[in-house]
Each structure stands twice: as C-alpha cells, then as structure tokens.
Amino acid sequence: MHASEGVRAVAVARSVAASLGLPADEAAVLHDSNKLTLRLLPADTLARVAPADDQVAEFEVGLARQLTEAGCPVGALDPRVEPRGYERDGFVVTLWRYYAPTAGEVTPAAFAGALARLHAGMRELDVPAPRYTERVERAQRFLADHARTPGLAPADRALLQETLRSTAEWIAARGAPEQLLHGEPHPGNVLATAQGPLFIDWETCCRGPAEFDLAHAPEEVGAHYPGVDVELLRRCRLLVLAVITVWRWDREDLFPDGRRMGEEWLARIRAAAGRE
C-alpha cells in the first residue's frame, strides 16, 4: 500500500480489533502489498486489511472455514470473533489466528505433502472460482495496452504475447483434469508452524490442473508431489513466469524491486525461447 494508505489501514485494524475485545496497542507489519498483514498485540491476532473496493473478504473467510472443517493444512480464522469481514473507513479487515514461526524452512517433501492434502480437500468442495486462464487473458490485455506497460521493448512485448498464447494452448490441449486450486501457493503463502506447513491467502483461488499450483512452488517440490505430469508442470512454470513478468512491467506495480525482477524473468523467458 502507499504510505498514507498504510497508516490509515493500521489504525482501522487496531480499531476493529479493539471493538471486538481484542486489545491492539501495537501493530507489527508482516507483509505489505495490495493488502496489509499485521500482527496485533497484546491480543496476538493476525489482521489482514484491504481497501473496500479491492477485496474478496467474504469469499476468503468462507473458503477458509470450509477448508479448516475438512482438515486441510490451512491457517485458521481467529476463533474469538465472528468469522467475517469488518468494513470500516474504506477498508475491510479479517482476523486470523497468529502462528509463531518455527526455525528452518519448509522442506520440499513437507511442502508437497501439505499441498497434496490441500488439493485433496479442495476436490471435495463446490466453490465457484475463475479458471487460471483468466490471468493469462488479463496479462494479454496489459500487453496490448502500451500505456499500461510502457517500459517493454517491442521485441520483449511480442515474446511475452507469444509465450502466453502458445503455452496456454499447449496446456489446454494436454487435457489434464482441473480442480479448485490455491492459485498462488508460493513460499510467501506457506507458514512454517509447529503444526506443519499451513497455507494462507485465498484471494487468488482458481480452477486448473494441480500442476498450475505446483508451478508457484520451489522446483524441488514437484519431485515429491504424487502423480505429477512433469512436462505439464514445466509448461505451467513457463506460463506462470510469463504472467508475473507482465505484472512487473505494469506501470502501477508497487512490488519492491519489481523492475529488476522483471528484467531477470524476461531473460529467463528469452533463454527458454532460444533467443539468447
């Protein structure tokens, strides 16, 4: 968030928590992107704050409740308050259980096992969600809008457009089964806790092959996931790389060091296309 917006978001989160009987004298920022994630003390609750016009709080809360009830490895909502979004002063706040991090990173085997359990639980849910292809279409629209992605050189723009088109067509032709997915289960959305790896952040939930989720995980994870289609996973990784590269060239992107990452990812896509 922009600095001024972030200050307001922190104040709103503290106010909402206090009104629900959760004292929030201190607020530590854990993550800052399109949403602000805060640890509120002394109540020790996790608050996620989003602008009211850019949030899917009810969807996230509802899905998290269903996944928790199904025994999936997910971060739970704070049981001390009603599970819903709390709207105030232009923001929506959701409150979650805070998990103290454990020492060390999640191993590839543990990551894969937890993701497989999450997918198994998701297959049992009837939840409406967009297909992964909507992200591809959005990225293509950004590429077609030169004013939205002004920094791209013509050759790189064409490369990204072709990579998105051809890779998405290949994946569709593969005809792999599709299911409800997390959408972005990268390491930033996986907590290392005493209970094992727990997945968080459901705003990117979508439908697609399991390999699309795996494409967001570290490469070593794929080797431990049961029944993975290795070639499909390779293509999904390329598709995801092309999509997130487009986001880094968006003139409105606020990702820290985003342009440097965009340059690095473009180089990887050029190499994959044999242009270097």
From TrEMBL:
Record-annotated Aminoglycoside phosphotransferase domain positions: 46-217
Superkingdom of the organism of origin: Bacteria
Annotated Gene3D superfamilies: 3.90.1200.10
InterPro entries found in the cross-reference section: Aminoglycoside_PTrfase, Kinase-like_dom_sf
SUPFAM superfamilies membership: Protein kinase-like (PK-like)
Pfam families xrefs: APH (PF01636)
Protein name: Aminoglycoside phosphotransferase family protein
Gene source species: Streptomyces albidoflavus
